[in-house]
Amino acid sequence: MPIANRARYNEMLDRAQEGNFAYPGINCANMETISAALQGFAEANSDGLIQVSTGAGEHASGAAKDMVLGAICLAEYAHRVADAYDVNIALHTDHCVPAKTDTFLRPLIAETARRRANGQSNLFSSHMFDGSELPLDENMKQSVDLLKLCHENEIILEVEAGVVGGEEDGIDNTNTPAEKLFTTPEDMVAVYEALSSVSGARYMFAATFGNVHGVYKPGNVTLKPEILKNGQDAVVAKHGKEAFFDLVFHGGSGSSKEQIKETLAYGVVKMNVDTDTQYAFSRPVADHMMKNYDGVLKIDGEVGNKKTYDPRSYLKAGRAGMAARVVEACKDLDSAGKSMGR
Fold it and tell me: Are 3 and 32 in contact (CB under 8 A)?
């Protein structure tokens, strides 16, 4: 199915909000992981998001180290391959910090504008601007400027206020004071009042409630999902039901399934999944190498076994492992079995 346009994307988010479920946002860095995500969504009969970070874009461009070029290549591949599946996929860019806005986010929006001028579909369905390192006023000023630009091109913008702890893709918040890991109701009201100034624009909001990027054992991450409820209540009390946010859950590794479910009732419509799917891809590859070391390596002058050192053999295993983890994420978020179909 073609990558979701703005109307289809709106319908996806509306259904999630009304049905108290969320879509996995699966971070991908190459063709194999995109294929794994698509396979997982199809097997779960779930719509969902494929996400590309600045680091993924740079990786995908090879020695060119051009994050915009790589992101465009990944998006073009996803556009082509998603058309073979009967689920709806939105393309999203993840965590663009202010220092990279002019070298990543704006060039990708400009590429969509160029495509639209030529009668083509949008390159990406949505983008994320992560201005959480800035004072809230400056964060929202830059967010509003980008939201205007996105709205002109029928793109949804995701913003963040508060800090997600841990480290991901070169963004290191491991030493962030604990109090900054929680978005206050006052902050959420301020975010709504800033972003709602762009009439007709749609946005998602990554509020923080103790989330931490990275991998942790269950019980080692202290989430406070009630922060989302308190913030939503404050916004609705002041501005009415139409102010209720489409929320995004970052840093879900180590969260209990009960806490994940709780966030769905408070307006979470997307949860990012990266660390867990990375491991799910790598684990079968490691297993292949260990079981077939004498075929993968040319030991003592032998020729090895081409069938085992052919990259397709172990990448196929990795793809299957990651696809299974995507299915699990769909079940955790209650999106499994709920694809809108064609």
Answer: no
